[in-house]
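Design a sequence for this backbone.
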């Protein structure tokens, strides 16, 4: 059974799972997105009186806590029990593109060890990538009214124009960051 689960699956399997999940959520009147769960967690932990933004009944969104817990547990299972011992298969073109901006291909796992390590974390490069980048992601998520999964999966499946605008903005921001900003930061 573990061999069947751990083999590469066709992308359409996850696509079908998302379609089924979106139909269930739409008919249940719920929204999908990680940022919604952060709002529910903050409302539950900090309380409704701390800010007007958290003043809502988070218990109606309690299913999001199960979703987050399942995501964490599933990520752990996927990265440990179902991990592929072989190096990540990266195309030669991607390796060349990464090396052109100073990032050697990952030796193990999916993240380049030259960036994701404690030495980089406590440097100017790490400050820009992790602290400023994390702030920009958090601020952008709230400013856009949701995260990429919320807008791209849930919003577009509901045919919401603001979600289409947000997804276009996500792609433009990703392209600008990948081809202009990131190479500048990595050369620090």
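Sequence:
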């Amino acid at each position: 059974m573990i061999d069947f689960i751990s083999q590469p699956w066709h992308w359409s399997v996850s696509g079908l799972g998302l379609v089924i999940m979106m139909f269930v959520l739409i008919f249940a009147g719920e929204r999908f997105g990680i940022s919604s769960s952060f709002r529910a967690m903050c409302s539950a932990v900090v309380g409704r009186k701390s800010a007007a933004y958290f003043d809502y009944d988070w218990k109606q969104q309690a299913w999001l806590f199960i979703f987050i817990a399942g995501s964490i547990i599933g990520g752990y299972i996927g990265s440990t029990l179902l991990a592929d011992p072989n190096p990540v298969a990266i195309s030669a073109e991607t390796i060349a593109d990464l090396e052109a901006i100073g990032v050697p291909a990952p030796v193990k796992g999916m993240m380049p060890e030259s960036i994701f390590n404690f030495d980089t974390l406590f440097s100017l490069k790490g400050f820009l990538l992790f602290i400023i980048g994390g702030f920009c992601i958090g601020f952008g998520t709230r400013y856009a009214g949701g995260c990429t999964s919320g807008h791209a999966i849930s919003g577009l499946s509901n045919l919401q124009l603001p979600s289409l605008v947000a997804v276009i903005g996500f792609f433009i921001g990703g392209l600008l960051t990948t081809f202009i900003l990131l190479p500048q930061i990595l050369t620090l």
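The chain has two domains: 1-83, 117-188.
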